[in-house]
Amino acid sequence: MPAVISQSSFGLAVAHLRNALPLAGQGLSWVVPMIVGLIIVTIIFKIKVKNN
């Protein structure tokens, strides 16, 4: 992240949240958000298929 963003209060909050995620120490902080997104997309897909 550019210094302007990473040193802002928003950037510091994002960095704190990223480090608080499970598996962040192993560089896998993307896994939990990916699983949540996959669940949300699956639910939306099933609702749309059911309505058609």
UniProtKB/TrEMBL annotation:
Function: Component of the transport system for branched-chain amino acids.
Membrane topology recorded in Swiss-Prot or TrEMBL: Multi-pass membrane protein
Protein family membership: Belongs to the branched chain amino acid transporter family.
Coiled coil: none
Gene Ontology CC annotations of this record: plasma membrane
Presence of the UniProt keyword Transit peptide in the record: no
Keywords for this protein: Amino-acid transport, Cell membrane, Membrane, Transmembrane, Transmembrane helix, Transport
Name of the protein described by the UniProt record: Branched-chain amino acid transport system carrier protein
GO biological process: amino acid transport
Superkingdom of the organism of origin: Bacteria
Localization per Swiss-Prot or TrEMBL: Cell membrane
Classification via InterPro entries: Brnchd-chn_aa_trnsp_Livcs (IPR004685)
Gene Ontology molecular function: any one: branched-chain amino acid transmembrane transporter activity
Transmembrane segments: 30-47
